[in-house]
Description:
By secondary structure, this protein is an alpha/beta fold. Helices cover 48% and strands 23% of the residues. The relative contact order is 0.24.
Amino acid sequence: MAIVVGYVATKEGRAALKRAAEECVLRGTKLVVISSHRGGRDFDADEAARFESELDRIKGVLQERGLEHEVRQLVRGNDPAEDLISVAEQEKADFIVIGLRRRSPVGKLILGSNAQRILLDASCPVLAVKAD
């Protein structure tokens, strides 16, 4: 069993990662950190290197804390929601942790919501965390 967390280098992503790590300590389970990107023209080599560096930093922090963990950077052309749900099913996750950001009703309508898709489509419980 594991806890799967969706990570983006934002205050919401850091809040989700922090809470997921706390839950792993409480439950004595593995943490699977997922950083998902669609790829394509908007995801160039420089951006990929920045994300890789950030994920290496996270690996170091998790190792220092003594947490069993796995960090995956996925660039498969999927929506982040698809990747998180897929990994959670593969890992038979206890639950998924995601960070939420405040959005206007129009923003939700126009842009869609990965968080909403995860909340509705995941086969396991989902813990949604707000940043401080």
